[in-house]
Amino acid sequence: MTMVSRLWCQKTWQNLALAKVLGKEPKTFSTLVQLKTDEAIDDNDSQAQTNDELIKSPSLGNYRLVYPEFLPDPNPLFRNGIREKLERMDMLNRRSVLSIPEFYVGSILAVTYSDPHAVGKINKFVGICILREGCGLRSSFLLRNVVNGEGVEVHYDLYDPAIQKIDCLRLEKRLDDELLYLRDAPLEYSTFPFDMEIEAKISESIPVNDIKIPLNPLPWSQRWERYNLKGVKEIVVNERRQKKAAALAKPWEKYDLMKTYRETIPEEEQNEIFSDVYTKLNELEIQKNILKRKYMLQRQKSSKTRTL
Amino acid sequence: MNQAKVEKLVSRLRYNVGPKPRKLKNVDGSEGRLRKIKKTLTAVIKYERIELNYARADETRGYVERLISEALRHGPEHVETMELANFWINEKQLVHKLFKVLVPRYQNYTTSFTKLHNAPCIYPGYAYKRAILELRGNIYPTVEQSNPHQHNLLHNILLDAARKEYRMEKYKEIAANMNF
């Protein structure tokens, strides 16, 4: 514990002169939303200049999709500028040790987790990501697979120090934001082999898997007819439930401008946040790409030797 | 802790947005609430300044701001924005006003597009707080009327000092010209 705190302190003082921030702006501890540019962090003009360029550059455009957990909670009652900044620093530190790949709901992941009770104290789980939630250090994802004919779901915190390795075996998206309906679908749709290998595909855009999944007959864990799911074939329920679903539908919700505003972080604020972490994330991304290419080359070589 | 939804990008609104939406009293729930706001929003775009109850004015303000910022962001060619305008504005000739009058007006604004003033309750009346909601840059005279005769304003202080100096000089002159 003391080790951790000492390390944390060292890194804090090294990376950012946060002491200045703390001294200058005591009101940043309040729970209100704080939207300010930190002068203490942009010590030299050149860095400030690069930051300005970054805000304008379109490369930050897809950062919100790749790193959604860097954005804070949209509820202003849960906001705290200092805490968010500290969490972002911790996340970057964790990412510099463990390479966390880009993944989405619908991607297939392999997580190696240290487990004191497992043989060799290591546990590997492969599964499809059916849910991504939370923000900051508490962000987490849910993996689902079938083990011995039984659906198994494992909930991992993305920044859990017990995670030793995360591999994205197949990078793709599905039609829905959450795939929790796989719980009520035939098991074959959530079955993935544990010895799957990383698929060799480097494409510019993320492929969207537009598979439509049939659901099991009732009973279900949730009333799926009410959810307006795109990735489900056709939902068959009795007339009473159809009527109820129609009565509870909210087609006007997509026009509720303030609702969408309260559920998201405005673009200006996103740019502020991502221009803070851009340099470090970009560095890590380049390292990750190099490692990936190396891995692919090695695999190609080994497959060639095998065929010979 | 919730994750922010990232599919849609929005511009930041330049006023203090409340953390929760208000439940405007009506029998139809959230649909009725939007219907009430639609009426007020159409009136604000039509008349540019209206007086109403504070809660409804404050609630409508966000929707007006968001609609204008969406129109600024995407323009009339964007299908979804046009759908939004069509949904929110009851009188359809005002859709033209939104894109042809309001968007050019607010192109270079660095402040919010609307302004909310507290209005007095007229006695005897209801206890609800009243407010005036207006679009900025309208043709009416300003609601806030500052008194230019307040003694502590800078120009009044300077004028007072000048008057005093002039008087002192005059006294000196009179004293010098006196013959006993």
- Largest sheet strand order of chain A: 4-3-2-1-5
Number of helices of chain A: 8
Q: Based on the structure, what is the oligomeric state of the protein chains?
A: heterodimer
Write the CATH fold name of chain A: SH3 type barrels
Most extensive interface, chain pair and sizes: A-B, 38 and 27 residues
Report the CATH architecture of the largest domain in chain B: Alpha-Beta Complex
Number of domains of chain A: 1
Radius of gyration of chain A in whole Å, from Cα?
22 Å
- Label the structural class of chain B: mainly alpha
Q: How many strands of chain A?
A: 5
| Mean pLDDT rating of chain B | 94
Organism (chain A): Melipona bicolor
Keywords (chain A): Mitochondrion, Ribonucleoprotein, Ribosomal protein, Transit peptide
Protein name (chain A): Large ribosomal subunit protein bL19m
GO biological process, one term (chain A): translation
Structural descriptors:
heterodimer; A: 308 residues; SH3 type barrels; five-stranded antiparallel beta sheet; disordered N terminus; B: 180 residues; 50s Ribosomal Protein L17, Chain: A; three-stranded antiparallel beta sheet; 5 helices; 9% strand; elongated
Short description:
In chain A, 36% of the residues lie in helices and 14% in strands. By secondary structure, chain A is of the alpha+beta class. A five-stranded antiparallel beta sheet of chain A has the order 4-3-2-1-5, with no helix packed on it.
